[in-house]
Amino acid sequence: MASKIVIGVTVVFDVVAFALAIAAEQRRSTAQVVPDSEKAYTYCVYDSDIATGFGVGALLFLLLSQILIMAATRCYCCGPSLRRDRSRYCAFVLFLACSLTFLVAELCLLAGSVRNAYHTRYRGIYYMNDPSCEVLRKGVFAAGAVFVFLTAVLSVFYYILHSKAREIGYTYANEPAIAMRPL
């Protein structure tokens, strides 16, 4: 039977990761081109950089959630063999889907955090073109939040189906797991 504590802690971690990813999307850095006091040069002024912290926090909470699920299920491949039925096959498909969405979510959150922290530092001559104040594109953290949500749903279903398949393990009638011939 699936542990309610593992499911509860995983859901809490995933909800916190989702909320931090949404907060990071809402608080992305913005920039303005500002002239210096002598009006000879222009440079970029960036506002708060809190979105980077939110993105890294979301990344870490999602990582903790996945570590908990993978430790509880022994990463699907380790541990005792599972009962051969639908639950085992569905758990395998959910394991693959959960791993894929986890990787995409982590990449979105990491790329968004790194790109949000990057600020251009050069100046432009006042009467020429303004410098390019590069900022993070809209939607990177939002895509990360979507994949965090998908990872949360898939990982909970994966854990439940894995636990169901593990309830009655596949046993052999006093035979070794790998048939071996005497030499």
Automatic annotation (TrEMBL):
<dbReference type="Pfam" id="PF06749">
    <property type="entry name" value="DUF1218"/>
</dbReference>
<keyword id="KW-0472">Membrane</keyword>
<feature type="transmembrane region" description="Helical">
    <location>
        <begin position="89"/>
        <end position="112"/>
    </location>
</feature>
<dbReference type="GO" id="GO:0012505">
    <property type="term" value="C:endomembrane system"/>
</dbReference>
<keyword id="KW-0812">Transmembrane</keyword>
<feature type="transmembrane region" description="Helical">
    <location>
        <begin position="140"/>
        <end position="161"/>
    </location>
</feature>
<keyword id="KW-0732">Signal</keyword>
<feature type="transmembrane region" description="Helical">
    <location>
        <begin position="5"/>
        <end position="24"/>
    </location>
</feature>
<dbReference type="InterPro" id="IPR052222">
    <property type="entry name" value="DESIGUAL"/>
</dbReference>
<feature type="transmembrane region" description="Helical">
    <location>
        <begin position="56"/>
        <end position="77"/>
    </location>
</feature>
<dbReference type="InterPro" id="IPR009606">
    <property type="entry name" value="DEAL/Modifying_wall_lignin1/2"/>
</dbReference>
<keyword id="KW-1133">Transmembrane helix</keyword>
<comment type="similarity">
    <text>Belongs to the DESIGUAL family.</text>
</comment>
<protein>
    <recommendedName>
        <fullName>Fiber protein Fb34</fullName>
    </recommendedName>
</protein>
